[in-house]
Design brief:
The chain has 453 residues and is an all-alpha fold. The protein contains 18 helices and no strands. The longest helix is centred in the middle third of the chain and has 33 residues.
Length: 453
């Protein structure tokens, strides 16, 4: 098959630009809504209590500013590798090298985390099969899907996104009807006083933001896909607004229903809080349906992660910051080497996860979140520099970003959240993992530079 979804497409190759605003938004939502929300949100609820609602609103605001900064530049300069390329233009080769490989490896880690979660969901129907085997099967399916042409790939992602949205809206509808007829089930009322809203104080709220950040971290998928967008000046801003408003609304309403139907300190982090909420409403028949959709959501995010990883690897190879073999195509325009490396690495990480620790899912989430913090700060800095240096023709900006002040404010908020998250031991382990990986990438720059010269 023709693997055009892995193709390094530049701004002059207009014939291959196949994504409209809705398919681009579908890929964006598909790349964001996954087990990080459906499973990981339970961890955030345990940290923040009912104030997790405010955490998702704040996370959505941060995400919108970062996505706005990313796409403001890509509207004017649509290229494969997007923000890695822009980082090299404005902050130099080393920072771009560091960012590119961090994005690639965090995508791999995110894929592994989703695979582990997917295996947990599959055991709902296949309890006798080992979690390790199921996780490997999940990764293999994702690898095969990423061989498809872009038009089929985007249709699959968009279809999965639509299904996820339908079920999430259905959950909201069920919750609203239940609350209207039965009233709030949680006592004391979550919003009766400040202590009820913030049971773990402000520190618990801020610490939950690391998990909340992970639920929004897939925005790189939509940024990486902008090179394939039709009429980017119209398509990209429209898609980002759809993604942001839809995502924040869905997340916020769902966690609101959860904290109104299940006491926050009774949430079991080993299963989805959505299922626990439905069980508390005595709607047990819906658990299987929700579990199935969560599994689809997991596949969807993994597909988007894999796509982004391949695009980044190709971009790194074209910039001579990765071996040149990864920019080579087959006769059918398929980037086989990039596809193989991403697939093999994903499988290795998943297999290692079962050999090392049963708590690796949490560690992977926290490590990916720290990578997201780094990635987001770099993108905001690049946006600020671009505002100063852009040409007179580059006048368009995303409607999401609040200009230079919005970028500076978002950087400050991210740094505060970073410092607060380090107070949680599991998060610190994730940070140490992220720091070691970042250090190794930095050291490898010198050797890669010698090889390329």
């Amino acid at each position: 098959m023709k693997g055009s979804n892995l193709k390094g497409i530049n701004s002059n190759n207009k014939s291959n630009k196949q994504l409209n605003a809705y398919t681009l938004a579908g890929m964006g939502i598909g790349g964001i809504i996954g087990s990080g929300f459906f499973l990981g949100s339970g961890i955030a609820i345990k940290e923040a209590g009912p104030s997790v609602i405010l955490a998702f609103l704040l996370g959505g605001l941060i995400m919108s500013q970062v996505l706005g900064s990313m796409t403001s530049i890509s509207i004017n300069r649509p290229v494969t590798g997007s923000f890695r390329v822009y980082t090299e233009q404005f902050l130099g080769k080393f920072t771009a090298y560091l960012l590119g490989w961090i994005i690639y490896l965090s995508g791999i880690l995110g894929t592994a985390a989703e695979a582990i979660a997917g295996a947990v969901f599959l055991k709902y129907w296949l309890p006798k099969l080992s979690t390790a085997l199921l996780a490997i099967c999940v990764v293999v399916v994702v690898i095969l899907i990423n061989m498809l042409e872009m038009k089929f790939f985007s249709y699959i992602e968009s279809s999965m996104a639509v299904l996820k949205i339908i079920i999430m809206v259905a959950f909201i509808g069920i919750g609203v009807i239940f609350l209207y007829s039965h009233g709030i089930q949680v006592k004391p009322l979550p919003f009766a006083k400040i202590q009820n809203l913030f049971p773990n104080n402000l520190s618990g709220f801020l610490q939950s933001m690391l998990i909340v950040t992970f639920t929004y971290s897939g925005i790189s998928t939509i940024a990486m896909a902008t090179a394939d967008a039709k009429n980017p000046h119209i398509t990209i801003p429209k898609a980002t607004v759809i993604v942001t408003t839809g995502l924040v609304s869905l997340y916020t309403l769902i966690v609101l229903i959860i904290v109104l139907t299940v006491n926050w300190n009774l949430i079991n982090t080993n299963s989805s809080p959505l299922i626990q909420s439905l069980n508390s409403m005595n709607i047990n028949w819906a658990s299987g349906v929700i579990n199935g959709v969560i599994l689809i959501a997991t596949f969807s995010v993994m597909i988007g992660n894999y796509y982004s990883c391949d695009q980044m690897l190709i971009s790194l190879s074209e910039a001579k910051e990765a071996p040149s073999m990864f920019k080579n195509k087959t006769k059918k325009d398929f980037y086989l080497n990039a596809w193989i490396l991403t697939g093999v690495t994903s499988l290795l990480i998943v297999m290692m996860s079962f050999a090392l620790s049963t708590e690796l899912f949490n560690y992977l989430i926290s490590a990916c979140s720290y990578f997201s913090f780094f990635n987001w700060i770099i993108n905001l800095i690049v946006y600020i520099i671009w505002l100063k240096k852009r040409s007179s023709e580059e006048k368009l900006t995303s409607p999401l970003i609040w200009g230079r002040n919005g970028a500076y404010g978002t950087i400050i908020v991210i740094l505060i959240l970073f410092l607060m998250s380090l107070q949680v031991s599991d998060f610190r382990i994730g940070f140490y993992c992220a720091a070691v990986i970042t250090l190794l990438i930095g050291i490898s720059y010198k050797f890669q530079k010698q090889i390329s010269n």
